[in-house]
Amino acid sequence: MLSVIAMVAVVNLVAMTSRAWAALATAAVCWCLHSGFVLGSLGVLTFTARSGHDALVIAGCALGAILLVSTLRAASAPLHEREYDENVPAIPKQPVPRALTPAG
Fold first, then answer.
1. Is 7 helix (H, G, I), strand (E, B) or coil?
2. Is the pTM of this model over 0.90?
3. Residue 12, C-beta contacts closer than 8 angstroms, at least 6 positions apart
4. 60 phi and psi, to 5 degrees?
5. What's the domain range around 72?
6. DSSP string, 32-62
7. What pLDDT does 104 receive?
8. In the Cβ-directed half-sphere of 79, how many Cα atoms lie within 13 Å?
9. For residues 65 and 15, is the Cβ–Cβ distance under 8 A?
10. Residue 61 domain flag
11. Which residue from 4, 27, 68, 82 lies 20 to 30 Å from 14 (Cα-Cα)?
């Protein structure tokens, strides 16, 4: 159980300091290390109920950390930076029709 807690701490640290795909890749590597060296022997992966439970715990904590960090990052970004985000599609401004005025 202590090794799972250590793996979750590593995954959470990577999620806070890096991108989401890096946290998910770290979770996969952490599960492989846990399954191979803690539950198995000499690095042979074990696929048991215990390793499946530990995989769900590590993946769940990784997704929770990713969700929390992305929410905090979005909330802490200043408004002027949110307007020019390249990931958000820009809506072009529509031209304002001119009013018809009688010739004078």
1. helix
2. no
3. 61, 62, 65
4. -65, -40
5. 2-77
6. HHIIIIIISSTT----SHHHHHHHHHHHHHH
7. 56
8. 0
9. yes
10. yes
11. 82
Cα 55 from chain centroid (whole Å): 17
In a domain, 95, yes or no: no
Tokens of 22: 């890096």
Q: Distance between CA atoms of 81 and 79, rounded to whole angstroms?
A: 5
Say if 99 falls within a structural domain. Answer: no
Total domain count for the chain? 1
**C-alpha span between 31 and 51 (Å, rounded):** 8
Q: Kindly list the averaged pLDDT for each block of 10 residues, start to end, along the chain of length 104.
A: 92 93 95 93 91 95 94 77 65 74 65
In terms of Cβ atoms closer than 10 Å to its own Cβ (0-12, 13-18, 19+), residue 8 is buried
Measure the CA–CA gap between 36 and 78, rounded to whole angstroms.
Answer: 44
Q: 10 Å Cβ neighbour count for 14?
A: 22
Q: Is residue 73 part of a domain?
A: yes
